[in-house]
Design goal:
The protein has 6 helices and 11 strands. By secondary structure, the chain is of the alpha+beta class. It has a 7-stranded antiparallel sheet with strand order 3-4-5-6-9-10-11. It has a two-stranded antiparallel sheet with strand order 1-2. Strand 9 and strand 10 form a beta hairpin. The relative contact order is 0.21. InterPro entries: Chalcone_isomerase, Chalcone_isomerase_3-sand, Chalcone_isomerase_bundle_sf, Chalcone_isomerase_sf.
């Protein structure tokens, strides 16, 4: 995707206030809405101090238990300078006629060196970390690459997927600039005409806070960047939707927090 035109730096946004009590890729068991998948990358055994020892899975992957999707512990992401490591997993669920349906599983990857920037949270319990918005702001603002990797567990048309993203992005941008509007248009056009089948991979990668890369593939891991979103406001709004006060995937945010606290235990 083509990025928006350059714009003078804007003051960094803060993640919305948190409440302390706020609520590899894939082999899936057969379920009414799910098919089995077998596109699993072969990785060499990888051990990183960033990955919690108690993670479900093996030395090569972690299982997101709500969907049984397997996430590699180490991954090369299009547009990144090096390998990223898995910090946490979760799933997104939508309610249809009072029935909760899981739409996708997600894994959050970061550069291993982020561990060196989190000394201030060493020894803090998960409940305290979960309610500390400054932690997630630091992770976004840090000059480190991080990626939200999504794997669909049901068919979703591109327009529906984009509308779900826009529903959480646009309300977080109170006074969008022309740069923001251009970035949203690029974002929308990237997904709107796509037929996103079960098993599709979507990588949303923040290389810097003001620049996010989108990579999409229905045939295994993405190998190219499909679009660039160059808007600090849009990228921050999306990040806040996953790691702010009301995350669209509470399981993902909680898993990331647990990963961080286990690293420092």
């Amino acid at each position: 995707m083509l990025g928006a035109v350059s714009h003078p730096p804007r003051p960094p946004l803060l993640i919305s206030g948190c409440r302390p009590n706020a609520a590899p890729f894939c082999v899936l068991q057969r379920r009414p809405l799910l098919r089995a998948f077998s596109t699993i990358p072969r990785l060499n055994s990888f051990h990183s101090p960033l990955i919690p020892k108690a993670s479900v899975g093996s030395s090569e992957y972690v299982v997101e238990t709500g969907t049984n999707v397997k996430f590699p512990r180490e991954l090369r992401v299009p547009g990144c300078s090096g390998s990223l490591v898995l910090l946490g997993t979760g799933y997104r669920e939508k309610v249809f006629a009072i029935i909760g349906v899981k739409v996708y599983a997600a894994g959050f990857y970061v550069e291993p060196s982020i561990r060196e920037r989190l000394d201030a949270w060493k020894g803090k319990p998960a409940t305290e970390v979960l309610g500390d918005c400054s932690l997630f702001s630091l992770i976004l603002q840090a000059p480190l690459e991080k990626s939200l990797n999504i794997m669909l567990v049901r068919d979703v048309d591109g327009k529906t997927f984009w509308n779900a993203l826009d529903d959480v992005i646009s309300p977080r941008i109170k006074n969008p600039t022309s740069v923001d509007e251009s970035a949203l248009l690029t974002f929308r056009s990237t997904f709107q005409s796509r037929d996103l089948k079960q098993g599709t991979f979507i990588f949303l990668t923040w290389v810097v806070p003001s620049k996010m890369l989108i990579s999409i593939s229905s045939g295994g891991f993405p190998s190219n960047v499909d679009a660039e979103i160059e808007s600090a406001n849009v990228n921050m709004a999306l990040y806040d939707a996953f790691f702010g006060e009301s995350p669209v995937s509470p399981t993902l945010k909680t898993s990331v927090v647990n990963g961080l606290t286990e690293v420092f235990s």
